[in-house]
């Protein structure tokens, strides 16, 4: 009977999409938006790590922290783009800062929007713009291909063009591309049109008041991250041996990043705890 009632409730929800009010967003600090049903899935705990484990980005953390706090407190703040090398903690930076801020200020909420749903953000803004909460729309690992046009919805949001803008909404995004779109455009025979199209493609990143770039870390930073994770996970191993094995792991993986460092330390857990 319980399963039967659950199916009825789900069917009713699909037939009559949710129109959440401010009280609804008291349920959690984070949500995932499903535009096809106008449904918000609650996230009980933001999946991230402690800010203290993020090495080599103190200035960047502080910049995002101050911006996020200002926004949560009702002051002017900027949209944020974090771009650059894979595995360097772009998403973790945003999630860790937002989690720490929302813990202190229940007024702040984060809503994750999938890359493929960016073109439908008009309906999301219409739902939340007048609610008495501060919302960060989180677009993780986004970029746009040559023939896509959904980036225009994001650009309109950043410009305040969607339904007149929303004072209680910011966009925090991550990308491997600095400009989110490919710089490759169509036929350059018509130079003026080609130049306009290129400018259109690269200008979207200018709409983010804060743009932070990350590059692949050097060996010293990589080892610092490894040691930090090893200490956090309680791994008892001599530093010299840890560094030696971490460098061997990095060579095998063919890259050096915070993600690779964490994967290496996790591989040690069964032997050194």
Question: What does this molecule look like?
Answer:
With 273 residues, this protein is an alpha/beta fold. The protein folds into two domains: 2-214, 3-Layer(aba) Sandwich (Rossmann fold), CATH 3.40.50.300; 219-272. Helices cover 43% and strands 14% of the residues. The chain contains nine helices and seven strands. Helix 8 packs across helix 9. The radius of gyration is 21 Å and the shape is globular. The mean pLDDT is 83.
List keywords for this structure.
43% helix; 273 residues; alpha/beta; 9 helices; Rossmann fold
Topology as a string of helices (H) and strands (E): HEEHEHEHEHEHEHHH
Instruction: Work out the strand percent.
Output: 5-15%
- CATH architecture descriptor text of the largest domain: 3-Layer(aba) Sandwich
* SS summary, helix count: 9
- Placed side by side, the strands forming the largest sheet appear as 2-1-4-5-6-3-7
Which fold name corresponds to the CATH topology of the largest domain? Answer: Rossmann fold
Number of strands: 7
What class do helices, strands and sheet pairing give?
Answer: alpha/beta
The oligomeric status of these chains comes to single chain
Mean pLDDT: 83
End-to-end C-alpha gap: 46 Å
The gyration radius over C-alpha positions equals 21 Å
Shape estimate: globular
> Unreliable stretches, pLDDT < 50, 5 or more residues?
none
What share of residues is helical?
Answer: 40-55%
Count the domains.
Answer: 2
Full CATH superfamily name of the largest domain: P-loop containing nucleotide triphosphate hydrolases
Question: What composes the largest sheet?
Answer: 7 strands, mixed
